[in-house]
Structures are given as structure tokens and as C-alpha cells.
Amino acid sequence: MDSLQEIAEQVKMCRQCRLCEGRTNAVPGIGNPQAEVVFIGEGPGKSEDELGMPFVGAAGKFLDKMLASIGWTRDDVFITNVVKCRPPENRDPLPDEIQACSQYLARQLVLLKPLIIATLGRHSMGIFFPDKKISEMHGKAIRTKGVNGPQVYLPLYHPAAALYNGGLQATLMADFQKIPQLLNQLKDTKQHA
Ligand code: URA
Ligand code: SF4
């Protein structure tokens, strides 16, 4: 039986794409194994690579602030990335790197069975909705059927993009506020299914 810990161990030893060459630490992801909401970022940056943890730099502080704004902490959710190793100079992950790493995210999602998959930024949204535009999709819940019943994708802007853009920051914060109500609806639906 697969476990989140097992996946993390495999990620730390993984050499399935070129991103392994520049990493200090792989960043498998962290959080509550019972989480009902999973956040998926793009890939580790400098601080994340140094510490082996997701979203610990400036963008992470903003993510913490958004979580606090709905009364949550990191312990309530699970946080991971599309690619688990830092792309050099924080460049975008390449399609073959995303492809090579996708099995880890897929397995994490099978185990977590979240009610809400919140994608952060266009690369993260792009693995589920390759043809959509984030400017049109952000803040809109996309309902699907997961292995465990109802499941919703919620595309959000990336907190790093919002850091230096006040308008985007307000939009991201507003979209984020939809999470608790959306989650309650989903739990309700699940209960009465
Ligand atoms: N940006 C990301 O997309 N992921 C992180 O873990 C940190 C910053
Ligand atoms: Fe392996 Fe993913 Fe790291 Fe590439 S980015 S080496 S596929 S863990």
C-alpha cells in the first residue's frame, strides 16, 4: 500500500528528470494526511530548496496570511507542487519535467482524496485544464467526480504573482474566501449522497 511518506522518500531519491541535478533538497509536500483541501503550487524556489518544504519564502508568507484570513493554518491542509525539485533560476518547469514528476502528484491525490484541489498559478491549473486561461478561470469552482465522491478544482492565482500586484492580490484574497463555503457545500453533498 502506497503512503504519503513512501512517496516523499521516493521523491527525495528521484532522478527521473534533470531537475534533480540542481536541487539541494527535493520538496515532496507537507500537511495533514486527512486534509480536505490540497494546494498545488508550481515548484520549489530558493528557500523551499534549502529547507525541503513548500512555500516557506515570501509567497509562502502570503499563503499563510490567506489561510489565517479564513481561520486556518497549514495543519488544516496539504501543500505541494507540480514539480518537486527547484528549476534553475526559478524558470518555469518544462513539459518533460512536469510529465516526469506527475506520477508523484497523482499518487498523492489518490491517497489524499481531497474535496477541493486548489491550483496556484497557471502551471498548476495547466496540468488539469491545459487549454484554459487563468484570467478566466480563477475563483471558479469546477465540479468533477473524484474517486471518493464529489471533487472540485478551484484555480487560484499564484501568491508570488500577487505579491507585487495589488489588484491581483485583492482578487486572490477574494477568491480564497470562497473556500470554506465551498467545502461546507461539498461535505453536505457527500453526506447526503
Ligand atoms: N512557489 C511555488 O510554486 N511553490 C513553492 O513551494 C514556493 C513558491
Ligand atoms: Fe524526480 Fe520530480 Fe525531482 Fe524531476 S522534479 S527529479 S521527476 S522528483
Automatic annotation (TrEMBL):
It comes from Candidatus Abawacabacteria bacterium RBG_16_42_10. The keyword DNA damage applies. It is an enzyme of class 3 (hydrolase). GO terms for molecular function: 4 iron, 4 sulfur cluster binding; metal ion binding; uracil DNA N-glycosylase activity. Gene3D superfamilies: Uracil-DNA glycosylase-like domain. It comes from the Bacteria. Residues 28-177 form the Uracil-DNA glycosylase-like domain. It catalyses: Hydrolyzes single-stranded DNA or mismatched double-stranded DNA and polynucleotides, releasing free uracil. It holds the Pfam family UDG. This is Type-4 uracil-DNA glycosylase. CDD domains: UDG-F4_TTUDGA_SPO1dp_like.
